[in-house]
Amino acid sequence: MALTEAGRVLLEHADRILAAVEEAESALAAVKGTVGASATLAALPSTAARIVAPALTALSSDQPQLTVTCLLTDQAQLKELALGTVDVVLGQRYHHLPDAAPRGIEVSPLLDDPLLVVTAAGQADERPIALRDLATHSLAVPPPTTDCGQAILHACHQAGFTPTTRYVTADIAAQLTLARAGLATALVPRTAIDPATPGIRTVPIEDHPIRRLLFAATRHTETANPTNTAVIAALRTAAQQARTTASQG
After folding, report:
1. pLDDT (tens digit, 9 = 90+) per residue, 58-114?
2. Interatomic CA distance for residues 112 and 110, integer angstroms
3. Hey, is 29 helix, strand or coil?
């Protein structure tokens, strides 16, 4: 199925109409100068514990009138933002991939989040590891169809080897369980790992780092929406706190 020529023309006008409505709503909210009563946030599951939960806790204290509905999903966050079904996205982009933000989306970087090598506690020392040394490891990694899975494959190929993927799962809790049991080595974003998790060892990659950029995104408007601004500010504070905790660990 494809749009007719009339359909394409109508779609272009619809985009402009929706953008104008969004602009008017943002301008009205800015004139009032107050944070609204509701917002919808789409976020990655891997950010729930270290960023989303602290941010929403702070918002409930600072803006008690604001109710944030949170959708935890790995798929289509920016598409949903462009369609207007969510207000703010906490998303990711791996550094080896081009920026693919849709037209009309404003992106604010939050945190550079490296993947760490995770094994069972006591299996090795605490020194950083060369990625090529994982060529002999059995890995627990996300599917190659995911951004994280692609990033791991890309980095391993750059390091000169094809990884041995014994376990394939996007479930980070499952990856950590397999690593804790000594069955596999996992590569997991730092903010997705609770520093107090028992039974695991985490070390950085020293030669071919794999990093994702966590960002907050909204639909672009000439006038900032106070509600979206408050949500993004809370996410930024939580991201900074996560960075500080990680550096102290």
Report:
1. 999 999 999 999 999 887 678 888 888 899 999 999 987 777 667 788 999 999 999
2. 7
3. helix
Interatomic CA distance for residues 170 and 55, integer angstroms: 24
Measured over the CA atoms of residue 152, residue 158, residue 159 and residue 165, the dihedral's sign is positive
Here the CATH number for the domain that contains residue 14 is: 3.40.190.290
Write down how long the chain is.
249
Parallel, antiparallel or unpaired: strands 88-94 and 211-219: antiparallel
Residues of the chain with pLDDT under 70: 9-33, 76, 100-101, 124, 247-249
Measured from the Cβ of residue 22, the count of other Cβ atoms closer than 10 Å reads 17
Residue 86 three-state SS? coil
**How many angstroms separate the Cα of 46 from the Cα of each of 14, 19, 127, 192?**
34, 31, 25, 5
Domain count, the chain: 1
Name the pairing type of β-strands 185-189 and 138-141. Answer: parallel
Check residue 16 and give its pLDDT.
59
Instruction: Tell me 159's DSSP state.
Output: T
